[in-house]
Amino acid sequence: MKRTPAPARIALALALLALPLAAGAQDFPSRTIRMIVPYAGGGLPDPLTRVIAQSFAATFGQSAIVEQKPGAGGLTAIQELLKAPADGHTLMFVDPSQWAIQPNLRPGAYDPLKDFAPIGIVGRSILYLMVREDLKVANLQEFVALAKSKPGVLSYGTPGNGSLHHLFMETLKAQYGIDIVHVPFKGAVLAFQAFMAGDLGVAVQAILTAEPQMKSGTMRRILAGSSQRSRFVPNVPSLAEAGIEGNFAGDLGYIARGGTPKPVVDKLAAALAKAVQNPDFQKQLENFYADPLFRTPEQFAETIRADLPRYARAIKIAGAKATD
Predict the structure, then answer these.
(1) How are beta strands 155-158 and 219-224 bridged, if at all?
(2) Calpha distance 77→254 (Å, rounded)
């Protein structure tokens, strides 16, 4: 079946979302829009959200500000969101950690199906299984063979217990019956530094973190943590090709508080679809090697419903626990 090009799909979604809205949304927004980011600066969420905030300000004629609220895997930011009125004036950047991983690690802390009002998904940042060249493995098959020949000898680093990186690797280990030691760090940068220093033979990292080392030939990517190959590194096979269902990629989205009126959600979604077409937005994705991916509020809600049980299984496999 012929697939509609991504720009056409975004334009169609924008047209549908821009249909006349119910009277309840006509006065929205009536004040500054807050956009909460659950991470400190240095990664994609902050600059991406700032571009969207600028686009929102131009679209709505109201200011939009970005606030960083890092901590506890996003729980600090979520608590801030849930304090706000359910009127659409407070939004939050989210990825699978907030809508699927943390709810499973912290049962009862919040319910993403009730406490979140999905606005849209805008992109995808893919993680990669990487090995040092001195391991002398050229592909996943050779890596699995090496791991089986040396159970418990190889080790890999992640930003922490229960991170997307951790669940990706533990699911892979279970799939192939291999024993590789997990070494958690306080952040992806520290994990990668240990990998570069030779303290670890294996890492799970995004493209941007490792690009200089890839070009130098000291490290090799052998598996993408997504169901499809990335356009940035099309020579690296996907999870589907490795026989693993689903994604361990960082889908990037925005939510409002649960209970936000649908006409307001639709108005925000239309503005988000417009922002996605902004050249500055596309540039930010490119700068961080993230793939464009647009999903409507309804599609985003379906993603949350599908991801909750899938990540619950991954957490069980990994034996992950909340640590902060």
Answers:
(1) unpaired
(2) 13
| Residue 167, helix vs strand vs coil | helix
pTM of the model: 0.85
Is the Cα torsion angle 237, 240, 242, 247 positive or negative in sign? positive
CB 95 within 8 A of CB 39: no
**Boundaries of domain holding 177:** 127-242
Name residues whose C-beta falls within 8 Å of residue 77's C-beta, 6 or more positions apart in sequence.
Answer: 36, 37, 38, 69, 70, 71, 92, 98
Last residue of a domain, one of 242, 275, 293: 242
Query: How do residues 301-324 score in pLDDT, each as one tens digit?
Result: 999 999 999 999 999 999 998 876
Give alpha helix (H) positions in the chain.
6-17, 45-60, 75-83, 96, 102-105, 112-115, 140-149, 164-176, 188-196, 207-216, 262-276, 279-287, 297-318
Domain-ending residue, one of 208, 242, 276: 242
Does residue 218 belong to any structural domain of this protein? yes
